[in-house]
Amino acid sequence: MDALIRVDGVSQVFGLRGDVVHALDDVNLEIATNEFVTLVGRSGCGKSTLLRLIAGLIPATRGEVSIAGEPVAGPRRDVSIVFQSPALLPWRNVIENVLLPVEVMKLDKRKYRKVATELLELVGLEGFERRKPYELSGGMQQRAALCRSLIQNPKVLLMDEPFAALDALTREELSLELQRIFSEHKTTIVFVTHSITEAVLLADRVAVMTPRPGRIAEIVRVDLARPRSLGEGAHAAELNHATAHLHELLFAPTAPVETDRAAT
Amino acid sequence: MSDIAELEALAAARRRGRTVAADWLLPLLTLVALVGAWWLAKIVFGWEKFIVPSPADVGDALWQNRSLLPRQFWTTLVETLQGFFLAIAVGVPLAVGIAYSRLLERTIYPVLLAVNAVPKVAIAPILVIWFGFGQWPKVVMVFLISFFPIVLSTATGLAATPPELVELARSLSASRSQAFVKVRFPAALPHVFVGLKVAISLAVIGAVIGEFVGASRGLGYIIIASGGNANTSLAFAAIVLLAAMSIGLFYAIVAVERMLIPWARYEGP
Q1: Fewer CB within a 10 Å sphere, N or C end of chain B?
Q2: Which of A93, A100, A160 to substitute to test the interface with B, most B CBs within 10 Å?
Q3: Same domain, yes or no, for A169 and A263?
Q4: Is 0.85 exceeded by the ipTM?
């Protein structure tokens, strides 16, 4: 297996108001091209920190992250992020928001307008191109944000609890859609979540993280055909099995107990 | 489907009706009540006309001076707008400098605070010495008085870019100027408009202060001059016009704000 993303002995320490927070401790992870990996764990286990390291938004205290063989020294054009909030620019309409990366990277906007329209169609936002973000529901805003992150056809898509701010039903709906989009628009995805169900439903592999210091406790492979769903069907038993296993890992008696201070 | 469209139209019409009532009728009623109370007080206490004129006296003064007052109104309006736009032209770039440079923030900001702490009225006579009796001392006074809220609100707005937008710009490797033009400045606009709305009200006051000290034109001059010959009705007429100017300018800014940043009503600064 040829790794696209390689996290090699990474440790991360933050100074926080005089305190030192050990966010990540000797984390090793290899992610293959077109693989879907979810990072799951409690708040403060360093999963968002790990994502930001891969994104090049923060430098690692120790160790190295590399993408396609190149060490990550800063944000890269072939890596894009979806945040927890849609982070759409409220003064731009949907399609202009999707085209923001194209503008910033000074690519041919006319050519990409067609790509943007196709992407909006893919996520079910056709007809909403000229709407402003505040005219859309939270779920639709996050769909638009997803299109923005896919516009430059990134090698790596990083998603930082992208559905966490949505209601439970919208959240499940988007999880199902993300699978469909992933199958039509192949890319490598690293997806941070604190929902075990979401982690299992989406991933090829789930990296279970434990806090203080942040470590990868175990990597669980989910070998199930897509599309998967939470409905009655062939996957219910297997999904339940994997979910139960993750519950045990995260809530094992030996697992560190959540204290009152979260690192993030 | 048509039922729903009909219901929506109905709801929209009702909303519109309520807004018209709230936006126009209520302030108008308040104004009428205040004028009524003023009139009543005058009758009850039997004040002399040269001390407190009645609303009718003021209306009469407005009518009698209908050729004089519009010109004075225009003079004061032009001074106000010149000073106000000067304050925007200097204040906004300065705020950008403060937001982007630690050095400027450390050096200029305290000086600005100190200058703002000086009562502007105290400077008015000095401005006459420096700039003479023409429009310039008034324009400079308007500038001085409206400049600070513009700088303060713009700098605050630029410092308050939502963190997720900052991170978005970073993740796209946007240059500093791209991040400013495409993200930080538009994101700061709701704050900027808070400052502009404060500044425009102050601007009219600035123009009047300037005219009090040394002028031969403008509504401020009319107030001073009519005070001198106990023509209180005319002074009141000038005050009414100043109030109208102030309100008109304020709502002009609100209109521009709604046009430029319609999203602010949904998200708030």
Answers
A1: N
A2: A100
A3: yes
A4: no
